[in-house]
C-alpha cells in the first residue's frame, strides 16, 4: 500500500510538473483527487483494509493527499501570477497617444471675465443690476448731464431706433434707473452689452461694459482709488498699482482715466504697454452733483463715485486676444481656448 | 490738435525738455497722443560750403569740393542747377537719412540712407540737398520750394547741423482735448495751461490797432436767428494789398497743417489756430445792399461754397446773407461769390459765435466740413470773438497789408465776455477729493489758472474767466485743484463712512448662470452674437410675411443693412455660426447663446420693448442627431427641476419630420429640430445641424424652485420589461403617459427598443419599455406587481390598442 501511495504521489508530482497551465493542472487534480481519481480510489478501498491498519493507512493517504494538494496550490498560484502578468502585458498601451475627447464646454470669455468681476464686486457688497439694451435718450444722455447740445454726444456714435429710443451707448444708463428707485446707500455694478456705430479691427458695434456706482455719505475720490486698488489686484494680480489722471465724462466731476501698472513687464515698459509701463483700463470719477440732484439725492448729505470697465478690453488684455471680432463669431477654435 | 513747441514758446517761457512738457500736459489732463520732431526722418545733414565747383563735361553735373566742417573737405557730385562755389547748402553725409523723391523732385517716396556713390565715374561722398529732400516746402522755409538746392543763410556755421537752422528740430505735440475744454482747441489756449502747470507767466499776443476814420455809416449788420448766432461782429478794412504773408506766419500755419493762400486769408487761419476762433473775410465789393444778415436759409435756397460745391439748403441751415443773396454757409465755409481775390482791396472781417449743435448738424447733413466747422462743433465762446477780431486787425497793421477802419459792427445777445464771480466752500472742494489741500496750494493753483482766488474762512471767491464756461460749481473747482496739485496726492481709502450692503447675483442671474454651466458640462460652448441682425436673416428662416418675428425694431442709422434690425429670434445667427464653423472645416460642435430678443409693443417705438431672455442651442456633426440636442434641452429642464414635453411640430426652417414644439406644464417654451435641407444648402452646411430655442422668460417662473428630498424606500424596487405592439403612428410619449396614468406606483418608464419589420404587420411596430415600480410603506409582493402589470396592459389595450408582443 505504501508503495502504491508513493507511486501515486510520484506520478502526480511528475504530472503536475509537466502541466503548462491552469486547465491542465485541473485535469491532474481530477485524475488524482477527483471523484474517479486514483487517490480517491485508494480512499474508497479503505473499507477493504484491516481495521487495525486503517488509522495508519488513513494517515498515509492523508499525507499523500496533502502533499499533492500543496503542490497543486503552489503550481496554481504560479500559473495565476503568470496569467495576470500576461493579461497586463496584453493590455499594454502607448500612453503618449491622444487623450479621449473631452466633452466639457466652457463659458464665453466675456462671461468668464464678467463672472470674475461680479464675484469681486459682489464680495465688496455690490449688487448686480442689469438694465435694458434699448434705452431712452433721457436715461442714456440727458439724465447723465449730456443734454442735446452737449459736446460729449460727439464722443459716441449712437444707434437710434426712434427720436426717443436708442441702443444704449454705455451701461451708465442703468445708474439713473437705480438712483430713481433706490435710496442710498447704493452699491451696484451693471454689466451689459452696449452699442456704438464703430466697426473696425479694434472696434465692434456691440461690446460689453460694466458700470459701477456707489452713493453714500462722505464718499470721496480717495474711496474710488481705494476700491480700484483692490479691484486691479484681484484681476491683474497682487502688486498691480493704479494711476489716476484727469479726463472728462459728463456724468462725473472730477473725472479720471485709470491706468494699471503693466502686469506683463511690471512697469518697466514692453510691447503690451507700448513702453509706458501703464495700461489704460477704465474711466471713473466722482458722480456729478447735477446727476445726483436730477435723481432727487441730497448732495449736502450724499456723494458717490462711478466707474465703467470695458469687459472686452479686460478679456483681451488678460488672455491676449488680438481681435475683438473673434469674440462674436462663435468659432469653435476660439471658444474652446479660454477656460479660466 | 497740433501744437508746435516753437509757437507755444511765443507765449510761455518753456524751460523744460520736450518730454517733461509732455509729462506735465499729461498730468493736468492733456494727453499727448503723439509728439514728433518736424525733421524726425532727417539725420546727419550739415551745413556744406562749396569751395570749388567745376562742371563735368558733357553732363549737367558739377564736381564740387565741399567743406563739411569736422567731416572734412568732401568730393560731391551735384546735379542741381543752382550749385555754385561760395554757396552754402544742406549736405547729407554718408549714413545720413533724407527723403527720397520721385523723378519730379517733388513727390516724397520714403526715407533713404545716403551711401558713397559714383556718378559718371566720379566718386561722391554725400549729397547736397533740396528743401523737399529735407521735408520742407516754401511755407516751412523760404526758398525750400525751389527745384534745386536749398540755399542756406550766409552766416550758417560750416559743418553745423542744419536742423536748428531750418527749424527741423521743432517739436510738434498732437494733443487730445477733452470735450469740456473747447477753450484749449488753440495754441494760445494750450499755452494758458502750459503757463499754469509750469507756474510761468503767460504773454498775451498783441491786440492793439489804430482805427482810421469811420467809413461805412450806411452799412448794417443784423441777426435774425439770435438762437443760432448769439454774437456776430464785423469790421471793415480798406486799402488792402493782397500778397504773400511773412515767413513766420506761413511756417506756423504749415506746422499746424494749413497751406498759405494770401495775407488776408492767412490772417483768418492764423487767428483760428491761435485763439480757436474761426474767422471769415468777405471781399467787400461783392457784398450787395450795404448789409449783412444772419438768418436761417429758406427752403431750397442755394449756395456755392469756396470749394465750388453747390448746396441746396433748408431752414435748419444758418447762412450769412448780404442784401440779395447768401454769401456764406455760417460757421462752415464762405461763399464763392464773395471770396478774396488777388485784386481785392476792401475786406469785411467776420468773427462770430454760432450754436455748436446747429453747425454740427448742418455740417453732417450737408456733408461739408472745414477747420472752422470742426471748431464750432466743439464749441466757440463769445470771449474769443472779441479777441480774435482785435488780433486780426492788429495783424493787418503788423503785416502792413491794409488800413483798419473804425467801422465795427456788432450784434450781441449772448454771454458776457467779462469774468463771473463764483463762491464755493473750501470744505466741499476738499470733501470731493477726500484729502485736505493746503489753502496756499489752492490759491497758487487757481491764481495760475487766472481765477483770482480770495479765501475768507471757508469761503473761496473766484473770478471765472469767460473762456471757462465749464466751471459751474465746487466739483469743478475740486477738479481744477487736483489736476494741478497732482493725482498722486489722492490716497487709497475704503469707504470708511459707508454702510454695509449685501452684494452678489440675484436669483435670475444665478439661475441663468446655473443653466449656462449645466450646458457647458454637457459639452456645449457659450457663444455671443450681435443683438442686431439682417432682414435677410428673416428670409433665411423662410418666415411668412405675417410671421411675428418679422415685426422687428429697425435701427434708424445702422452701419449697414445686415445690422439693421433688432433680433426677434436667436436662430439665424446660431445657424450662421454653425455654418461659419463648417466652412472653416470644423465639422462638429455644440454652441449655446443666452441673449435677448426684442419684441416691440408698438412700432415705431413709443415705450420700452419687451427684451426677452432667450436661450439658443446649436449642435452639428456626424455624432449629433435630434435626440442629442433634445438631451441638451433636458439638461436645461433638469437644471430648473422641471420636465419638458416634446410634440411633433413644424418650423419653416426645420426638417418637417424632425421638429418638436417644446412645452412645460402645458405652456409652449420653444422648439427644437433639424435644420432643413433647403436652409442647410443655402448656408453651405456640410454636416447635419440642429437648433433649439427656449424662452427663458417663460421658464423664469421655475427659477429657485424649492428642492425637496424624497426619502429612499427601504424596500427594493421592482422592474419589469414589456414589448408592446402598437400602431405605427403611436408615439413614445403617448405610451409613457398611459403607463404613468395606469399605475401610480410607476416612477420611471424608459423606452429601450423599437422594432418595425417583417415579423410584424406593415402598420404595426413594437416598442419595448422598462418600467420601475417603487414601493412605499411595505414591500411590493409579486402578486401586487402582477396586478399592476395587468392594469397597465388593460389600459394600453383599451386606449392605444396595444398588445404584448408574443
TrEMBL record, chain A:
Enzyme class: ligase
Residues covered by the Aminoacyl-transfer RNA synthetases class-II family profile domain: 164-337
Gene3D superfamilies: Bira Bifunctional Protein, Domain 2
GO molecular function terms noted in the UniProt entry: ATP binding; catalytic activity, acting on a protein; magnesium ion binding; phenylalanine-tRNA ligase activity; transferase activity; tRNA binding
Taxonomy, superkingdom: Bacteria
Cofactor note: Binds 2 magnesium ions per tetramer.
Cellular localisation: Cytoplasm
E.C. number(s) listed in UniProt: 6.1.1.20
GO CC list: cytoplasm
Annotated GO biological process: phenylalanyl-tRNA aminoacylation
Keywords noted in UniProt: Aminoacyl-tRNA synthetase, ATP-binding, Cytoplasm, Ligase, Magnesium, Metal-binding, Nucleotide-binding, Protein biosynthesis
UniProt keyword annotation of 4Fe-4S present: no
Annotated binding of Mg(2+), by residue: 253
Main location: cytoplasm
Keyword Mitochondrion: no
Cofactor: Mg(2+)
Catalytic function, reaction form: tRNA(Phe) + L-phenylalanine + ATP = L-phenylalanyl-tRNA(Phe) + AMP + diphosphate + H(+)
Pfam families xref list: Phe_tRNA-synt_N (PF02912), tRNA-synt_2d (PF01409)
NCBIfam families reported in the protein's UniProt record: pheS (TIGR00468)
Quaternary structure note: Tetramer of two alpha and two beta subunits.
Family: Belongs to the class-II aminoacyl-tRNA synthetase family. Phe-tRNA synthetase alpha subunit type 1 subfamily.
Xref: PANTHER family: PHENYLALANINE--TRNA LIGASE, MITOCHONDRIAL, PHENYLALANYL-TRNA SYNTHETASE
The name this protein goes by in its record: Phenylalanine--tRNA ligase alpha subunit
From TrEMBL, chain B:
InterPro entries: aa-tRNA-synth_II/BPL/LPL, B3/B4_tRNA-bd, DNA-bd_dom_put_sf, Fdx_antiC-bd, Fdx_antiC-bd_sf, NA-bd_OB-fold, Phe-tRNA-ligase_IIc_bsu, Phe-tRNA-ligase_IIc_bsu_bact
Pfam families associated with the record: B3_4 (PF03483), B5 (PF03484), FDX-ACB (PF03147), tRNA_bind (PF01588), tRNA_synthFbeta (PF17759)
Annotated ranges, domain TRNA-binding: 39-163
Residue ranges constituting the FDX-ACB domain according to the UniProt record: 713-805
Keyword Nucleotide-binding appears in the UniProt entry: yes
Required cofactor names: Mg(2+)
Domain B5 positions: 417-492
Protein residues bound to Mg(2+): 470, 476, 479-480
Protein name: Phenylalanine--tRNA ligase beta subunit
Lineage: Bacteria, Bacillati, Bacillota, Clostridia, Lachnospirales
Amino acid at each position: 500500500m505504501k508503495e502504491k501511495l508513493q507511486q501515486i504521489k510520484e506520478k502526480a508530482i511528475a504530472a503536475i510538473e509537466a502541466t503548462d497551465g491552469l486547465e491542465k493542472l485541473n485535469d491532474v487534480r481530477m485524475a488524482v483527487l477527483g471523484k474517479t481519481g486514483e487517490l480517491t480510489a485508494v480512499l474508497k478501498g479503505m473499507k477493504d483494509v484491516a481495521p487495525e491498519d486503517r488509522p495508519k493507512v488513513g494517515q498515509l493517504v492523508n499525507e499523500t493527499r496533502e502533499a499533492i494538494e500543496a503542490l497543486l496550490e503552489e503550481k496554481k498560484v504560479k500559473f495565476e501570477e503568470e496569467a495576470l502578468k500576461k493579461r497586463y502585458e496584453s493590455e499594454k498601451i502607448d500612453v503618449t497617444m491622444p487623450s479621449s475627447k473631452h466633452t466639457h464646454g466652457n463659458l464665453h470669455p466675456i462671461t468668464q471675465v464678467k463672472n470674475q468681476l461680479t464675484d469681486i464686486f459682489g464680495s465688496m457688497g455690490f449688487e448686480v443690476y442689469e438694465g435694458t439694451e434699448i434705452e431712452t435718450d433721457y436715461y442714456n444722455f440727458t439724465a447723465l448731464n449730456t443734454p442735446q447740445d452737449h459736446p460729449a454726444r460727439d464722443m459716441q456714435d449712437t444707434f437710434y431706433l426712434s427720436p426717443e429710443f436708442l441702443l444704449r451707448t454705455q451701461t451708465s444708463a442703468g445708474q439713473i434707473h437705480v438712483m430713481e428707485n433706490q435710496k442710498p446707500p447704493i452699491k451696484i455694478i451693471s454689466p451689459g452689452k452696449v452699442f456704438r456705430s464703430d466697426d473696425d479691427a479694434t472696434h465692434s458695434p456691440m461690446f460689453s461694459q460694466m458700470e459701477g456706482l456707489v452713493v453714500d455719505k462722505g464718499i470721496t475720490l480717495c474711496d474710488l482709488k481705494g476700491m480700484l486698488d483692490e479691484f486691479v489686484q484681484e484681476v491683474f494680480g497682487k502688486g498691480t498699482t493704479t494711476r489716476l489722471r484727469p479726463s472728462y465724462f459728463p456724468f462725473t466731476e472730477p473725472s479720471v482715466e485709470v491706468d494699471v501698472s503693466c502686469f506683463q513687464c511690471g512697469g518697466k515698459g514692453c510691447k503690451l504697454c507700448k513702453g509706458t509701463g501703464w495700461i489704460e483700463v477704465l474711466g471713473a470719477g466722482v458722480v456729478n452733483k447735477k446727476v445726483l440732484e436730477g435723481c432727487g439725492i441730497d448732495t449736502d448729505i450724499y456723494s458717490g463715485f462711478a466707474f465703467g470697465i470695458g469687459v472686452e478690453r479686460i478679456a483681451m488684455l488678460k488672455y491676449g486676444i488680438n481681435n475683438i471680432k473673434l469674440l462674436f463669431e462663435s468659432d469653435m477654435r476660439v471658444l474652446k481656448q479660454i477656460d479660466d | 490738435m497740433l501744437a508746435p513747441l516753437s509757437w507755444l514758446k511765443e507765449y510761455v517761457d518753456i524751460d523744460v525738455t520736450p518730454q517733461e512738457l509732455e509729462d506735465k500736459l499729461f498730468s493736468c489732463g492733456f494727453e499727448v497722443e503723439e509728439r514728433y520732431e518736424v525733421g524726425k526722418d532727417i539725420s546727419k545733414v550739415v551745413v556744406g560750403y562749396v569751395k570749388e565747383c567745376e562742371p563735368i563735361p558733357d553732363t549737367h553735373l558739377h564736381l564740387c569740393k565741399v567743406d563739411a566742417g569736422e567731416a572734412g573737405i568732401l568730393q560731391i557730385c551735384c546735379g542741381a542747377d543752382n550749385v555754385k562755389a561760395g554757396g552754402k547748402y544742406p549736405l547729407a553725409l554718408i549714413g545720413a537719412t533724407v527723403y527720397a523723391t520721385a523723378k519730379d523732385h517733388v513727390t516724397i517716396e520714403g526715407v533713404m540712407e545716403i551711401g558713397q556713390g559714383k556718378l559718371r565715374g566720379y566718386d561722391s561722398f554725400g549729397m547736397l540737398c533740396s528743401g523737399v529732400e529735407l521735408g520742407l516746402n516754401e511755407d516751412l522755409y523760404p526758398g525750400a520750394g525751389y527745384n534745386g538746392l536749398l540755399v542756406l543763410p550766409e552766416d550758417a556755421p560750416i559743418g553745423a547741423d542744419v536742423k536748428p537752422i531750418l527749424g527741423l528740430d521743432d517739436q510738434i505735440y498732437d494733443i487730445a482735448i477733452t470735450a469740456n475744454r473747447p477753450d484749449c482747441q488753440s495754441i494760445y489756449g494750450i499755452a494758458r495751461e502750459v503757463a499754469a502747470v509750469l507756474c510761468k507767466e503767460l504773454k498775451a499776443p498783441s491786440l492793439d490797432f489804430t482805427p482810421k476814420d469811420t467809413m461805412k455809416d450806411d452799412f448794417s449788420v443784423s441777426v435774425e436767428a439770435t438762437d443760432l448766432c448769439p454774437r456776430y461782429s464785423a469790421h471793415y478794412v480798406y486799402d488792402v494789398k493782397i500778397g504773400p504773408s511773412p515767413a513766420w506766419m506761413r511756417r506756423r500755419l504749415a506746422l499746424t497743417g494749413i497751406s498759405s493762400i494770401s495775407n488776408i486769408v492767412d490772417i483768418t487761419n492764423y487767428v483760428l489756430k491761435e485763439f480757436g476762433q474761426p474767422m471769415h473775410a468777405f471781399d467787400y465789393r461783392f457784398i450787395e445792399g450795404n448789409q449783412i444778415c444772419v438768418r436761417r436759409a429758406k427752403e431750397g435756397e442755394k449756395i456755392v461754397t469756396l470749394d465750388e460745391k453747390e448746396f441746396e439748403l433748408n431752414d435748419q441751415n444758418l447762412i450769412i446773407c448780404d442784401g440779395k443773396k447768401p454769401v456764406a454757409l455760417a460757421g462752415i465755409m464762405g461763399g464763392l461769390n464773395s471770396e478774396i481775390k488777388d485784386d481785392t482791396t476792401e475786406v469785411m472781417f467776420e468773427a462770430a459765435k454760432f450754436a455748436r449743435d446747429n453747425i454740427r448738424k448742418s455740417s453732417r447733413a450737408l456733408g461739408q466740413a472745414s477747420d472752422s466747422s470742426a471748431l464750432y462743433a466743439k464749441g466757440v465762446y463769445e470771449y474769443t470773438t472779441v479777441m480774435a477780431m482785435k488780433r486780426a486787425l492788429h495783424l493787418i497793421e503788423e503785416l502792413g497789408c491794409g488800413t483798419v477802419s473804425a467801422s465795427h459792427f456788432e450784434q450781441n445777445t449772448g454771454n458776457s465776455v467779462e469774468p463771473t464771480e463764483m463762491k464755493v466752500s473750501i470744505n466741499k472742494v476738499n470733501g470731493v477729493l477726500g484729502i485736505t489741500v493746503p489753502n496756499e496750494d489752492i490759491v497758487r493753483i487757481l491764481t495760475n489758472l487766472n481765477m483770482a482766488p480770495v479765501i475768507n474762512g471757508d469761503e473761496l471767491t473766484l473770478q471765472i474767466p469767460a473762456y471757462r464756461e465749464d466751471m459751474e460749481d465746487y466739483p469743478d473747482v475740486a477738479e481744477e485743484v487736483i489736476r494741478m496739485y497732482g493725482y498722486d496726492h489722492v490716497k487709497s481709502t475704503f469707504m470708511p463712512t459707508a454702510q454695509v450692503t449685501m452684494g452678489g447675483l440675484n436669483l435670475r442671474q444665478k439661475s441663468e448662470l446655473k443653466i449656462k454651466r449645466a450646458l457647458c458640462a454637457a459639452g456645449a460652448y457659450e457663444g455671443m452674437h450681435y443683438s442686431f441682425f439682417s432682414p435677410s436673416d428673416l428670409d433665411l428662416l423662410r418666415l411668412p410675411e405675417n410671421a411675428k418675428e418679422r415685426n422687428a425694431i429697425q435701427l434708424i442709422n445702422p452701419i449697414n443693412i445686415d445690422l439693421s434690425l433688432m433680433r426677434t429670434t436667436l436662430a439665424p445667427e446660431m445657424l450662421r455660426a454653425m455654418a461659419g464653423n463648417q466652412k472653416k472645416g470644423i465639422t462638429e460642435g455644440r454652441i449655446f447663446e443666452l441673449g435677448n430678443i426684442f419684441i416691440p409693443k408698438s412700432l415705431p417705438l413709443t415705450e420700452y420693448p419687451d427684451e426677452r431672455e432667450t436661450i439658443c442651442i446649436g449642435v452639428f456633426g456626424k455624432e449629433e442627431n435630434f435626440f442629442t440636442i433634445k438631451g441638451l434641452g433636458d439638461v436645461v429642464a433638469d437644471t430648473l427641476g422641471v420636465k419638458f414635453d416634446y410634440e411633433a411640430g413644424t418650423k419653416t426652417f426645420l426638417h418637417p419630420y424632425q421638429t418638436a414644439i417644446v412645452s412645460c406644464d402645458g405652456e409652449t417654451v420653444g422648439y427644437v429640430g433639424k435644420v432643413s435641407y433647403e436652409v442647410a444648402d443655402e448656408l453651405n452646411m456640410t454636416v447635419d445641424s440642429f437648433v433649439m430655442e427656449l424662452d427663458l422668460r417663460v421658464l423664469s417662473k421655475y427659477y429657485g424652485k424649492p428642492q425637496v428630498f424624497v426619502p429612499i424606500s427601504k424596500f427594493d424596487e421592482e422592474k419589469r420589461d414589456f414589448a408592446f405592439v402598437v400602431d405605427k403612428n403611436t408615439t413614445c410619449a403617448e405610451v409613457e403617459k398611459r403607463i404613468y396614468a395606469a399605475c401610480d406606483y410607476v416612477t420611471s418608464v424608459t423606452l429601450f427598443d423599437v422594432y418595425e419589420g417583417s415579423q410584424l404587420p406593415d402598420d404595426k411596430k413594437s416598442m419595448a419599455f422598462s418600467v420601475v415600480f417603487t414601493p412605499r410603506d411595505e414591500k411590493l409582493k409579486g402578486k401586487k406587481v402582477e396586478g399592476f402589470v395587468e392594469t397597465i396592459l388593460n389600459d394600453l389595450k383599451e386606449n392605444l390598442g396595444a398588445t404584448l408582443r408574443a
